[in-house]
Specification:
alpha+beta; six-stranded antiparallel sheet
Length: 506
Amino acid sequence: MSGLVVAYGEPDRSDLEAAFSKIWHRGPYATGIWETDHAILAQNYLQADCIFANDRFEIPVPGPPDTKLRICYDGQIDNWDELVEIHGISAGPFREEQLLLHLYQQHGTDMLQYLTDAIFALVISDGEDLFAARDLLGIKTLYYGWKDETLYLASELKGIFEVTEEVYEFPPGHYMDPKGRLIRFAELPKTPPNKLHSGLDRMLKDIQAIIRRSLRNRVDFRVPTGSLLSGGIDSSVITYLASEAYREKFGKDTRLKTFALGVGRSSDIQNARVIATWINTDHHELIVDLEEILKVLPEVIYYLESFDPSLVRSAVSNFLISRYAREHGIQMLLSGEGGDEIFCGYTYLKNFSADELFARQMECIGFLHNNAALRLDRMNQCHGVRVVAPLISGELLSYAMAIPSEYKQKPEGDQKIEKWIFRKAFECILPEGVVWRVKQEFSQGSGSASILPAYFEGLISDQELVRAQADYPIVRSKEELYYFRIFTEHFGSQHTVESVGQWICL
């Protein structure tokens, strides 16, 4: 994970440097600026992103000597090892960047068809032309804005806002041409694939294999690595598979570090202990209270760039546990993020019939780009930690879309079991109480979902909320009003507010 800021048109170096300073936290380990008359590209990296690099390598990464191409890139290509072999990319640092530059040189905008198993935000320029793109799900964040005749792009809203108030979210599944036009290159399907999988046993084995492959393609433990562990099925599966790979590399008696957070005696803490003992990890807990949560809220909202209550609650937990992990020397954290979207884990999805579930699942996945993806990116990045979420995988998503709805939300009596097939795939390796534990959002399990709304209900009067809603109908509760006020102090209340995604419920 890394950060980028680009100015194109009639760029001003001081404006770009001001914008770049706002995302310094995304990569203080290695940084560089490349400048021409019509373009300035700035890139930074975390140490976990460039462990093979040294002072001889230029940043932003250049293309072949016979071109003037440079790339700014934040992302991860799951099948990069296969692609670099096919396209003859030599070994060394920044192989993904070199691969992307090669694909662009060979295929132009059609390069994006090769990135079906990748998450990315990228900008490529030779100083005269510019090409920018963002992955279909919007897992990697990107914003743009205009100041006079100059286009600015940046990994975070705050970078653009430092230069101009005219700031917009770069839409997922789009690329931008040199004239600033946005063109869609991919979209989520409207209907399920025609050919569905057959044979439950085959599907269970495939799911196990795809997730294990996704993790091993992304994680090699060359930097200090730990795993977030809430005690739910998603983080437990990832932690189990990571521990398996960790012991293969370092020895059967070694233990992967795991990290759990709770407010008081939360269910997450208790369930995480069960899993940590079962897997035999080097387990660490952080117990916090309301005072500590309130203290970090302004910082969380500044880095998160959102005021959605559900997102802020869970982001607080992520912020605190990521900071705690960094204090323990961790540079890369594994996360179970994505399982609910891939396998229909959200409780509200139980309200829909099997025929309607696919459309609702695609709608849910469509929320990622300006909601959960922000938490995944920002709450780790601000502490200099790279996060890896193996369940967010193009291969896994494509496979899961063809799984019949009744295996994702399986009817049992008058109830439905969410993520049934995912649970079934791993019931043989985890405790039964964890595998079949009812879904809880991170904020519910950690305890912040109950404590924060109650606090703000007593802090803000009914009259205050009514007055605020007259000016800003987007505000839905007292809790959201509190967060909204912090957000607008940092980012104003015009275009920036329109970039904020709001979850379907509070």
